Here is the input.
Amino acid sequence: MKNYSKQREAIITVLRDMKTHPTASAVYEKVKEIIPNISLGTVYRNLAALRESGDILAISIGDGFDHFDGDKKPHIHLHCRECKEITDLYLTEDPAAAFAMSQGFEPDTSVYIVSGICKDCISKKQIKI
Amino acid sequence: MKNYSKQREAIITVLRDMKTHPTASAVYEKVKEIIPNISLGTVYRNLAALRESGDILAISIGDGFDHFDGDKKPHIHLHCRECKEITDLYLTEDPAAAFAMSQGFEPDTSVYIVSGICKDCISKKQIKI
DNA sequence: ATAAAAACAGTAATGATTACTGATTTTGAG
DNA sequence: CTCAAAATCAGTAATCATTACTGTTTTTAT
Here is the structure.
């Protein structure tokens, strides 16, 4: 007696399909293409619930917005502090989760955020010098 | 001609010493012990600047507050969705950062967030059954 | 079919964070 | 050591992403 609604299904679908890491309002804009009269509050409520249950991930990069990620496969987020872009990097396995497990922790989702300077920004910087 | 103030220094000191992952206002409360008349706005301004420059890390766990971390040594955050607690797990090296580097990305800070259920909550759950 | 439970749309309220202002501190050149 | 420009500050007002609320609709499980 819980959890289903076509709105929630649409939100999950949108998140699974988006390859970016959308904010709540970006999700809202996208979901409106499926359910035009969906409410922004519904998007927030469902994102919060999905995050709480571990079905999606949320990350904060300091731009004032939460960013959501529907991809539960363990992967690294490369976050460039220069251009602010987040790109994904997939590992064939998840060494840290394995380590966490060996400590008695039952992992179900994980995100690695590596902050630094991306390839493009490094070359841009070198041109400027 | 930039960046120094005793307020900023106190904020960094507090963050380096705190073993928890304090919110902005927890930092504020702590810094007040050093500089009693410091302003909350100053704390926010400096936290934002330090985060921007990569001197500290900020993480979002869905409680409505940003949490800050002054420890730049690569480590895992074990985030329990049950009790909400974050505990640190140190690795002898940082395999993901090394992998990022091999992709042409220059890493300087990284955090791994592994969400799941911690030891204590697992045993509590089993008692309930 | 149907009644209780859950979720919704729409909107108002909240409160963490940011922006602003005039005062103070820091910096670096002379 | 001045001293003025630049940066930062304290204090407070404003912002705006997110949450809460209300009456309605959908879902669920008998």
